[in-house]
Design a protein that fits this description.
Layout: H1 2-29, E1 81-83, H2 87-93, E2 98-100, E3 107-111, E4 117-121, E5 127-129, E6 134-136, E7 168-170, E8 175-177, E9 203-205, E10 212-216, E11 222-226, E12 231-234, E13 239-242, E14 277-280, E15 287-291, E16 297-301, E17 307-309, E18 312-314, E19 336-340, E20 346-351, E21 354-359, E22 365-367, E23 372-374
Antiparallel strand pairs: 1-4, 2-3, 3-4, 5-6, 7-8, 9-10, 10-11, 12-13, 14-15, 15-16, 17-18, 19-20, 20-21, 22-23
InterPro entries: Chitin-bd_dom, Chitin-bd_dom_sf, Chitin_bind-dev_reg
Biased composition (Gly residues): 67-78
GO cellular component, one term: extracellular region
């Protein structure tokens, strides 16, 4: 009897202890306030995006173009900022859609896979064209004006003890002259009339020919002239003089010129008959177009310093390349380039992300070799 009672007490005590343990365990199993979802440990993992349609144009020289989420290689442009301000538009348009950014015509918004919009600048100082959903020359985009570039001066002219005051040394003729009468920029043979104010209103000596010269007008046009037989051009005196007075003159540089004419594009038909394939963008030789499976076009850029040529991004510049020799990853860097038009009296002036059609005027034409207007 005593033994049975003791056993019952032990069993009851054991049951009470078990209940107490279960109660304590239940208390600590309640949500600890951290907000973690124990049923979905991957709930806080950011969703990765699929590679954009078209991916990137593979190239030789170990270069690749293209993009993930559509941004792609933009010639060194900023990556852009992702914002939730455009979730409404992107939810309607879908991932990889692009539309204009109202506050700046040189930027656009690209929808991401998570429904946000990424503000992206056009590379190389170009502007965004909402009609083609691509970046192109600023003057080709309605209502977009090129940014004002700061005036510049030719500051690479050599100094010499024999020159006085503001004079600089002309290494071609071994004489002292005033700034703006010889080309001083390193690697250049012709004056950049649209970039350097010092040249305006001056006759500038030709580095290729002792008898020739350029003239920069106030409206930034560049003209080419030459002295008559038996005379050389003297930049210091701003006139033609007898050869004998500048017998020491020797040309020091030979320049090259662009012979290609810019090509237009019909965005509505550019991918006709082409699907799932990369094709050149005829407006920009460092850009390409991917024709999607449904035949819709999408533009992307090759890495900085490369061009789209024969189906890939390469360092070899195609012969059709116009107005892009000086496009760099730095959109603020000044550049100037000339290209011919089909009209012999006109030419294209390319500078700071824009390509402008200029007219030489009456009784003159554009010369390919000198890249200037001549009479």
């Amino acid at each position: 009897m005593y033994m049975r009672s003791t056993q019952q007490e032990v069993v009851v005590q054991g049951l009470l202890l078990l209940c107490l343990i279960l109660a304590i365990t239940r208390t600590y199993a309640v949500d600890d306030g951290t907000g973690a979802d124990t049923d979905n440990p991957g709930a806080d993992v950011t969703e990765g995006g699929d590679e954009q349609n078209g991916g990137g144009a593979g190239g030789d020289d170990n270069q690749t173009g293209g993009s993930e989420t559509g941004g792609g290689e933009t010639g060194g442009a900023d990556e852009g900022s992702t914002t939730s301000d455009y979730t409404t538009e992107c939810s309607q348009l879908g991932a990889y859609a692009r539309f204009k950014y109202d506050d700046d015509c040189k930027q656009y918004v690209e929808c991401q896979v998570d429904g946000t919009g990424k503000l992206t600048p056009c590379p190389l100082g170009l502007a965004y064209d909402p009609d083609t959903e691509s970046c192109t020359w600023t003057s080709d985009v309605d209502g977009c004006k090129p940014g004002e570039s700061d005036s510049n001066t030719a500051d690479d002219c050599p100094s010499d003890a024999s020159c006085t005051g503001t004079e600089i040394l002309d290494p071609m003729r071994k004489i002292c002259t005033q700034p703006g009468t010889i080309v001083c920029e390193k690697g250049e043979s012709m004056p950049k009339c649209s970039l350097i104010d010092t040249y305006k209103g001056h006759f500038i000596a030709d580095k290729e020919d002792c008898a020739s010269y350029y003239y920069c007008s106030d409206d930034e046009k560049r003209y080419k002239g030459s002295c008559t037989e038996g005379y050389y051009f003297d930049p210091a005196r701003q006139m033609c003089v007898y050869k004998s007075s500048l017998a020491q003159c020797k040309p020091i540089k030979t320049s090259s010129s662009s012979t290609s004419t810019p090509t237009a594009i019909d965005w509505d038909t550019v991918c006709n008959g082409v699907k799932s394939k990369f094709i050149p963008d005829p407006r920009l030789c460092n850009a390409y177009i991917y024709c999607n499976g449904d035949g819709t076009p999408r533009q992307d850029f090759c890495p900085t310093g490369t061009y789209f040529n024969n189906g890939s991004c390469t360092k070899t510049k195609p012969s059709s390349c116009t107005c892009e020799s000086f496009l760099t990853s730095d959109a603020t860097k000044k550049y100037e380039e000339y290209a011919p038009d089909t009209d012999k009296s006109k030419y294209y002036l390319c500078k700071n992300g824009d390509r402008i059609l200029e007219d030489c005027g009456a009784n003159s034409h554009y010369d390919l070799k000198t890249q200037s207007c001549t009479f």
